[in-house]
Amino acid sequence: MLLTTAMKIPASSPAGQAARSAAWYQTADGAPRGFIHTHALEEVWFHTGTACNLACPFCLEGSKPGDDRLQRVRLADVQPFIDEALTLGVKQFSFTGGEPFINKDIVPILDYALQSRPCLVLTNATRPLIQRIRQLKPLSQHPHPLHLRVSLDHFEAARHDHGRGKGMFAQALAGMRELHHAGFSLSIASQAIPGCSQAEVSQGFGEVLQAAGLPADLPRIEFPEFHPPAAQVASPQISAQCMTDYHSESSRRQFMCAFSRMVVKTAGRMRVYACTLVDDDPDYALADTLIDSLPVPVSMKHHRCYSCFRLGASCSELQRADQDMSATGAGDT
Ligand code: SF4
């Protein structure tokens, strides 16, 4: 069955009836919770695991060396979901971590996925990536492109290295140069920089990229503070009425959970989550398969949902062409 945007998502699934917390359905003051209804499956994300070579204190995944909150996926874990997604009309496969290039199966996984669709990988572009450049080069010969989004928190090396470790800024630029020379397209993910205008930030990054021998005008995605996993954040509650008072049908279709899913591995089991931002809350584990996950209405219960609601935060680059890049968020590695 090929699912297109014109085809209806199945009305219900057994997974949709799974027990969830009361907060999934009601706000703290008892109002009906806002929900997003998925209209298509355009993008499927895979979480490659929360292990990372770095240990940034602000990481929204809490990733660090040896971390296994989310386990490393293997090619055999991912293949059935790629195959299923293709029957559902997916347009792109995307990969986040942790640091995806720590995962020893990442190149075979990309090799498999790129035979069918374009792929996006989020990376810190440091040693794990640099060590795999030779393995990555043949992937540029696939009919579908591989695009990499590199985390550069700030255009000043010292500010980037403050969170990521000394020398990581220079290493990331070296990794980006290798990728650029190998023919892969790039974008960068930065953090919101208080007190700097967008023009100043763009100019700062442009000068740094140019000095590093890279195109000065690489697309840049700026992301807000997402807080570490399981953080207790007092964000405003999003009711059903908020979803119609402040959003239209068209803007609700831009939420990531309206057109994508993320697949993660925990306790040896692959599960389909609503999006890239909610894998720390089991309520958002929607189903074991993509098709069963699609009819489940997605609650606006998570504090990160407010970033989507208020700022249009999104890890996706699929619907970015018409949007202001500076108003959106991104996953991190
Ligand atoms: S964080 Fe955003 S995309 Fe994810 S479930 Fe909440 S509103 Fe949807």
Word description of this protein:
With 333 residues, the protein is of the alpha/beta class. It has a single domain (40-327), classed as Aldolase class I (TIM Barrel). It contains 11 helices and 11 strands. The protein has helices spanning 75-87, 106-114, 127-130, 133-136, 157-164, 168-181, 198-211, 240-245, 249-252, 290-293, 305-311, and strands at residues 35-36, 43-47, 92-96, 119-123, 146-151, 185-191, 220-223, 260-266, 269-273, 285-287, 298-299. The strands form 2 sheets. The chain has a 9-stranded mixed beta sheet with strand order 7-6-5-4-3-2-8-9-10. The radius of gyration is 19 Å and the shape is globular. The protein binds iron/sulfur cluster (SF4). Iron/sulfur cluster (SF4) is lined by residues 36, 255-257, 274-275, 277-278, 298, 300, 302, 304-305, 308. Its cofactor is [4Fe-4S] cluster. It comes from Nitrosomonas halophila.
